[in-house]
Amino acid sequence: MSDRDRNDPGSANEFMAQACALEAEAAERYAELAELMRAHHNSEVAELFGKLARIEGLHRDQILERMGWASAPDPATFRWQTPEGPETTDFADLHYLMTPWHALGLAEHNERRAAEFFERVAGRADLSADLRAVAAETAVEERGHVRLIQAWQARFPEPGPDWDEDLDPPAAVD
Length: 174
Ligand code: ZN
Prior knowledge:
This protein is 63% helix and 0% strand.
């Protein structure tokens, strides 16, 4: 992989905007996943996602405060993707039958993308030491999230290829 992605920030402001969008997107997705796991009666995983939603939301708020922004910038700079890639990322489709294993896989994939983003920025000699320090610190946190998610995913067996035919349809829940 090139050490400078096409979409990487060119300035401090751009970096903070992208970081803010990334955290805002993560907070939103985790809140959705928490809701989804709750609907599937997996309160343990719902709690984990709820906790991560709060952590990422806190990161978002810290950036907003630091920059004096009223709201997160356009989130289009960092949308979550499925492990299969951006073309298949239709969350409306994925939602209803997703198992904890799939949900955790989705989270792991995007935490890794986040960590890699901050690691690249931390390594950029053209940005200020201050900014690189913020990026490096955030990269460590995101790596921690990757490990946390991986540990959780290891608790669940990988569903078979026909997993989406075997789960309870929503009509059968309660
Ligand atoms: Zn994270």
